[in-house]
Amino acid sequence: MPLVYSCGSKGRLLLSTLLICALIFELGYCQKDAQEQRTTPGRKAMQRKSKLGKATNKGAVTAKPKIKAAPAAQAQTVITQVLDRGRFQKVGETISVPTGDTLELRCRGKPVQWSVPSYLEEDDDGRLRIVQHERYGALTLVNTTGADTGQYTCYPMYCEDTDCRKEYGKAVKVFVFFPDPQELFVPSSDYYEVIQLRTNWPTVLPCQVTSPQAKVTLHREFPPVEVAVDGTEISFDVKKGFTIHRPRPYHAGALFCVASLGNLRQSSTKYMLIYVNYPMGPPAPVILASSSSVVVGENLHVSCTVVGEQDVAIEFTWEYPGQKIGRPLHTQESISPVSGGTALQQSQSVLLVDEVRAVDEGAYVCTAQNLQGAKSVSSAVKVVSKAKPKKP
Ligand SMILES: *[C@@H]1O[C@H](CO)[C@@H](O)[C@H](O)[C@H]1NC(C)=O
């Protein structure tokens, strides 16, 4: 739809076209971004806003049927880098800026919002400046260091009156390296980092280099060996670090990265990898009472059983009628392998109620929980009074 496209990219259009455009953008993105974060726009943005806001109401009737087509045609967001002597360069996926230099990025949009490496967001030491101009947002970072290496993202904002929201789908990213002649790794505040290796989840060792030219290898501390990186089981991405795609118990241990460039060879923070046997899903408990109808004075036991993956811990909790009057809880828990050579185990909790009383009548609820979630099952138990001796 050329109409919408030109709306975002060039401003020289008939007023009526603009009005329709404003509406299409609004309707298209309001729905999509309804749950996304709202932000207050800058002063400039608000002035611009009030114009668009009025326009929207007038254009409402004409534009309505075009809502569906709107998201397909969008103005392209672009980040450009401002080089010295006023030259501009459209950035690709990554750029390198010598440390100490100034990083200056511009992103077309009115307004836009930036996201920067988290450490820059956290301690504001006055080196980062973000300014919104008429047609673009400008980000300037001075006195740069290797620690500034990371992802810089520009989000075009959609505004309606004083509410603005990020248009996530139109975000553009550039990964900026600041090659530091002294520091091959982006410094970390921690001496070591504990990382969980989950069975069903890729694990990232975030050793981030400051230069895309650095050669990075992965090492185990004990025994001291280089870990093979085949690109399938373990892969390396210069913007991210190492990824262990399908963690196995033998990946656990202390690992670190080594980067070399020229004469420089440095080690990263240490990563303590801990293997966690992660279940595929929440447990599926089965509850069984020794009897659904118990005579006063007899004993009752209710069992709750889960058959699941080996070495996956199950936590059981109980709710029972006697709780209300403070009847103590007696449970017996056990784990046993499931026969047949399968990698399964049976976990069981048995709730024991001695000398049943009337107050023990009601629902017995067992909740079984593992790292993926919890599930409850219940069983109703009826208490009957002692049978009277039959008359002769
Ligand atoms: C950048 O470095 C220069 C020279 O060391 C210093 O004078 C200036 O204050 C620094 N600027 C900021 C914003 O930190």
TrEMBL record:
Instruction: Give the SMART domains listed for this entry.
Output: IG, IGc2
Q: Where is the signal peptide?
A: 1-30
- The domain of life is Eukaryota
Keywords, in A-Z order = Signal
Task: Keyword check for Signal, yes or no.
Answer: yes
PROSITE patterns registered for this protein in UniProt: IG_LIKE (PS50835)
| Stored InterPro entries | Ig-like_dom, Ig-like_dom_sf, Ig-like_fold, Ig_sub, Ig_sub2, PDGFRL
Pfam families linked to this entry = Ig_3, VEGFR-1-like_Ig-like
Provide the residue span(s) of the region labelled Disordered: 36-57
What sequence ranges are listed for the domain Ig-like? 283-385
PANTHER family, alphabetized: PLATELET-DERIVED GROWTH FACTOR RECEPTOR LIKE, PLATELET-DERIVED GROWTH FACTOR RECEPTOR-LIKE PROTEIN
Q: How does it assemble?
A: Forms a complex composed of PDGFRL, TNK2 and GRB2.
Protein name, entry field:
Platelet-derived growth factor receptor-like protein
Source species: Anabas testudineus (Climbing perch)
